[in-house]
Amino acid sequence: MSCPEAYQSVMEADLLFRPLVPQDLPSVLDIELQGYSHPWSEAVFLDCFKDSYHLWAACRAESLVGYAVVAYMVDEAHLLNICMHPRVRGKGIGRQLLRHVLAAASREGMSQLLLEVRASNESAIALYEDEGFREIGRRPGYYPSANGREDARVMVLRFSQ
Ligand SMILES: CC(C)(COP(=O)(O)OP(=O)(O)OC[C@H]1O[C@@H](n2cnc3c(N)ncnc32)[C@H](O)[C@@H]1OP(=O)(O)O)[C@@H](O)C(=O)NCCC(=O)NCCS
């Protein structure tokens, strides 16, 4: 789907981004369990509700369909988690949420957004590359996996000044 078509369907679908609140956690955990082989626990999410963290909910027709967690460290934003409910994937919402995160980080004085992604996560890597991220390194064995450990690709998008 070309970008303009994707974003038209997102707009028609009544999409809203708002700050995530602790009351969202049951919906978040439901999506998290469906999104990852090694999902975050409720305690990990609760630990992210602090000043240097920015948590976003993507809502469609008032239902939470995805979220993103970003940590700000000095002038660098670090995308720690972005996940969409399986039933809404492939509709352009993940890209919209990523762009929302990037716009907020840039507006709030960050100079770049950094992330780690599993080397096998082809759909996420395709999205990041398409949005202009480039790989700056690898962290060998960073993630647990079914076969032991898996490398992380470290990717960055620098904001133009
Ligand atoms: C990664 C994720 C957030 C993308 O969200 P999404 O709403 O499905 O993505 P979009 O519909 O906005 O797609 C954006 C781009 O991602 C890539 N993409 C998405 N799904 C894909 C798939 N199944 N195969 C290959 N590329 C895919 C494409 O480049 C796509 O652009 P296109 O539609 O122009 O081809 C979503 O797949 C997800 O929640 N995955 C599970 C959690 C996860 O892996 N998070 C990333 C951790 S680093």
Which SSEs are present, and which pair or pack?
Blueprint: H1 3-12, E1 15-19, H2 25-35, H3 42-47, E2 53-60, E3 63-73, E4 76-84, H4 93-107, E5 112-118, H5 122-130, E6 134-145, E7 148-158
Parallel strand pairs: 4-5
Antiparallel strand pairs: 1-2, 2-3, 3-4, 5-7, 6-7
Bound molecules: coenzyme A.
Structure description:
The chain has 161 residues and is of the alpha+beta class. The chain has a domain of 111 residues: Gcn5-related N-acetyltransferase (GNAT) (Aminopeptidase, 3-Layer(aba) Sandwich), CATH 3.40.630. It is 32% helix and 39% strand. The protein has a 7-stranded mixed β-sheet with strand order 1-2-3-4-5-7-6. The radius of gyration is 15 Å and the shape is globular. The model has no long low-confidence stretch (mean pLDDT 93). Coenzyme A binds next to strand 4, helix 4 and helix 5.
Instruction: State the helical fraction.
Output: 25-40%
Structural class: alpha+beta
Unreliable runs, pLDDT <50, ≥5 residues? none
Quaternary status of these chains?
Answer: single chain
Bound molecules: coenzyme A
Pfam family, one: Acetyltransf_1
Protein name: [Ribosomal protein bS18]-alanine N-acetyltransferase
Domain N-acetyltransferase: 15-160
Binding site for acetyl-CoA: 121
